Amino acid sequence: MDQAVFEVLTQALSSDEKIRVTAEQRIRELEQLSEYPVSLARMALVQDIGIPQRQISFAVDPHRI
After folding, report:
1. Distance CA 21, CA 50 (A)
2. What is the DSSP string of 1-43?
3. pLDDT in tens, the chain (65 residues)
4. Which residues of 5-23 are buried (b: 16+ CB within 10 A; e: fewer)?
């Protein structure tokens, strides 16, 4: 789950609109899973991933559905 969240958040940062829109749809699907907020929290705390991914993990609202 953590890897899937990392990948989709990385794709959501893409400048390619098609990739970004697909990632946003996948985020909406992941939001339905109970493990999703936990993965976001882990990503925010892990220091060996990129700063953009850590920052976006704070910006994604797991209760926005």
Report:
1. 21
2. -HHHHHHHHHHHT-S-HHHHHHHHHHHHHHTTSTTHHHHHHHH
3. 888 999 999 999 999 999 999 999 999 999 999 999 999 888 888 878 777 777 777 676 655 54
4. bbebbbbbeeeeeeeeeeb
Q: Which residues contact 56 (CB under 8 A, 6 or more apart)?
A: 9, 12, 13
CB 49 within 8 A of CB 12: no
- pTM, full prediction: 0.74
What are the extents of the domains in the chain? 2-59
Measuring CA to CA, which residue among 63, 64, 44 is closest to residue 54? 44
